[in-house]
Structure prediction request, 670 residues.
Amino acid sequence: MSGAHGRRHAAGGGARRSHRNGQSGGPGLPGYIPGPPSYAPDSAPHSASTTAPHSLSHSAPNSAQGSGDAPEWSGAEALGRDHPPPGSQGPRPGASAGRIDFGTEITASLVVFLVALPLCIGVAVASGVPAELGIISGVIGGLVVGAVRGSTLQVSGPAAGLAALVAETVMEFGVAMLGVIVLFSGILQIVLGLVKLGRMFQAISLAVVQGMLAGIGLPLMFSQLYPMSDSKAPGTPLENMAGVPGLIADTVTNPQALIAAGLGIVTIVLSFLWKQVPGPVKKIPAALVAVGIGIAVASLPGVEVKTLQVGNLLASVDVPGPDQLAGLADVGIITAILTFTVIASAESLFTAAAVDRMHNGPRTRYNTELIAQGAGNTVAGVLGALPVTAVVARSSANVQAGAKTRLSRTLHGLWLLAFALLLPQVLALIPISVLAGVLVHSGWKLFAPEQFPKMWRQDRGEFAVMTLTTLVITATALLEGVLFGLAAGVVLAALRMSQTVIRQHIEDDTAKVVMAGNATFLRLPKLIDALEGAAAAGKPRIRLDLLGVTHLDHACRSQIEEFVAQQRGAGLRVELLMPDLTKLPAAAEPRAAQQEPAFTEVPEPVSTEVWDYATVGTAAVGGTGPTPAGTGAGSGPGPDAEWFYLDTRPMPGAPESRPPLLRRGRDWAD
Prediction:
């Protein structure tokens, strides 16, 4: 057996032993367990998904579950079920016995409810729909999505990331058509989950994801500056940005607008600094504290800031009828459905990856979670409410409150429903500027400006993709920007995968071109320059060595074949060393059919028609031009002949054979 073959065999055995022992190797090894991408959509701090020192152990169960329908494993089970994940403290108390700490779950649900209430209302106002629709979507996110066993601790509801998209849709098609769009988006999500495409959304460049989130957050911030001053936004993101100087001038001259802006600024400051407050008071959500301050200020004599207009919750339900369903014939409606489906699904599953890094409990079952999100959006569409997605702000609050089961996220929907039915008059006291301030903070967290210099330091190509995605979304629309970012990411990946090394030099009477790597059409100009340089050298012989090429696409192959034919037609001798990784060459097939050992000390005589260097294993060199003088049948290779190892595997039928003895120049290689 050849040494190389023996080494391959040993390496393969070692890999199998490592897999049996439950060890994790690097990429490409059997034990390697990839983790989910490290990003946190919506309003969560981006550091939440990047600071965990043992992210592999936390994310391993994600990959272990494959399609998303495997049993939920703990971190220890996903790593061979022998050891707990690094950094963990072993099994969770009560987990092994299957007990539920109802006190902790109820407390966590109340915390999530307090976080979700202002966000539901604020997102609805920013989306240009009645506040009641935001609460209905929050209730659906708890009672419908929360009851499905997809992601245990992830909490869903109306998200700030979709506010701009919903506002544009409502402005173009009206609130009545929103239910139809959300309904069919939910149906599409269910279909995607049933055909097990839940993990497809993870195969997206991180730069595109962060660019999308930044492209959502930047326009959201500028659009909410206007209601924060009790003013009306001009319209498009670019118009909103251009109108900020005029907004500031109008605000400072209007005392009531100045009070409203002050409430919004206080809300933003509290949102950034509240967690630094000492003592247990910091456990109260900052948005809720801001709402309390806003209600107190708005009730003072002489203060006339705009407050929330709240109607009857049940009366706000608008079930789509035949007139709305007829709108499905509109191309714009179909485009909106696809946009909602892609963005809502991506945001929910990206959030699931971020939330899984926050705890050591059961991992997300991606396909099941996508079906759950689809079910929620289907119900929301039937009721004419806002679309539902997973929200990191509520999910992180749920984890930090100590929740361990789905009970907490389900109960938070019940508290939202009870509050809206029993205490709707309290909602009418909330100043709109406070809700706008909450969303400005959410927009800033989505924009995450610190991620741009970080990406610049790590990968400037990905930085370009991220920046372009953000700019295109801001200048056009969300769908166009995401598609542009995906295209840019694919182009960048293609350029990097098409790494081709082409060297050209002159040696005696031969112009040599040596190429290695992946030769694709993207490197065609470089290949053409090298071929033309070899032809222009004026040497009687041209040698094209492509044995180091691992992939040769049709465009490059055609260019090489045309060049060879052209130069041979001009009377030059062209020696082409071309790998063929698809099948055994014809010259080797007769030997493979024989039962005799394949070992030879001297290569077999070559054809008198062409000069072949070698035909061995799965790589062949052929079509190298007319037979040189003095190399007829029976004459061996001349002193300047060059022989190459093209394959070290034994020939079929001779497992103990050694590789053919090949010669390079005057030095024997064996």
Remarks:
- Strands lie at 156-157, 389-390, 500-507, 510-519, 541-552, 573-577, 615-616, 619-620, 663-664, 667-668.
- The two ends are 14 Å apart (CA to CA).
- Residues 1-97, 583-649, 657-670 have pLDDT under 50 and may be disordered.
- Residues 608 and 632 are 5 Å apart (CA to CA).
